[in-house]
Amino acid sequence: MPELPEVSGLRAFLEARLLGAVVDSVRITSFAVLKTADPPYTALEGRTVTAVNRFGKFVDLDADGIHFVFHLAKAGWLRFTEAPSDKPLKPGAGPIAARLRFTAPATAEHPAGAVGFDLTEAGTRKSLAVHVVRDPQEIQALATLGPEPLDPAFTQEVFDGIVTGSSQQIKGLLRSQSVIAGIGNAYSDEILHAAKVSPFAVAKSLDAETRDGIFTAIGEVLGGAVAEAVGKPPEKLKDAKRGGMRVHGRTGQPCPVCGDTVREVSFADRALQYCPTCQTKGKILADRRTSRFLK
């Protein structure tokens, strides 16, 4: 799943390529992906892209006051092209959920001409979402996002207030978009590994030193990943994400900090990874939500 760093990279790339571009056509090939009806998605056509924004894991293309907002969810991605096809798309056929074509202005790096992107989604569980709205705050999941973790307003004091008031396990708290925007399964693993904290630790049980360590890790892990992602084209962002992981997705491999074997806890639709030596004092967490190893 793309998280804050990858979505930041996508936003920066799209801004560089599409700012000032005219929307020539919008095609929705999977109508399950379209979550809004008013205004119609065709209202985007003929408008100029005036801004590209990010809200948590959402990307927002502002076309003269009509917003094309998308959330890639677990298996969605963006495929950009400088040679868009005129071939008609068959609804429901293949992984393409939406296709947008633009006439882009000339820049120092690129000549004027046609460009475009497809939103694609792999697998059978479809959760990619597209919204066409006049105001992004009309989208409930966006309007209820928590604070941005790299915003200067997200201070240690703000973070302490979130943590000390919650009975959730810290892993789940970090992943909750209404609590903190943009952190998902992968980067929550990386943050907790950097902070040397068990993913099953109860948030309000954490002392000030531990909270400080997690807060610092949020800034360092996400900040480093954003710096790595921005400037890369979409096709290189997934590899950049995987290459930066220390524990997430590395079950059975040695921890780069201590050399212990990275372990996994599996759930119905996801898994987390951690290092026993670094995070749980050598204890192996039970492979179920009700593990008693909380520290």
Give the strand content.
15-25%
State the low-pLDDT regions, or none: 289-295
Rg over C-alpha atoms, rounded to the nearest angstrom = 20 Å
List SSEs in N-to-C order: HEEEEEEEEHHHHHHEEH
Under CATH, the homologous superfamily of the largest domain reads MutM-like, N-terminal
Strand order of the largest sheet: 1-6-7-5
Q: Specify the CATH class of the largest domain.
A: Alpha Beta
Q: How many beta-strand segments?
A: 10
Shape: elongated
Structural class by secondary-structure content? alpha+beta
Oligomer: single chain
Architecture per CATH nomenclature, i.e. the level-2 architecture of the largest domain: Alpha-Beta Barrel
Mean pLDDT rating = 94
The count of helical stretches stands at: 8
Q: How does this model look, in words?
A:
The protein is α+β, with helices and mostly antiparallel strands. It folds into 2 domains: 4-143, N-terminal domain of MutM-like DNA repair proteins (Alpha-Beta Barrel), CATH 3.20.190; 156-279, Helicase, Ruva Protein, domain 3 (Orthogonal Bundle). It is built from 8 helices and 10 strands. The protein has a 4-stranded antiparallel beta sheet, with helices on one face. Strands 2-3-4-8 form a 4-stranded antiparallel beta sheet, covered by helices on one side. It has a two-stranded antiparallel ribbon with strand order 9-10. α1 runs antiparallel to α7 (234-244). It starts with a helix and ends in a 16-residue tail after the last helix. Mean pLDDT is 94; it is low at 289-295.
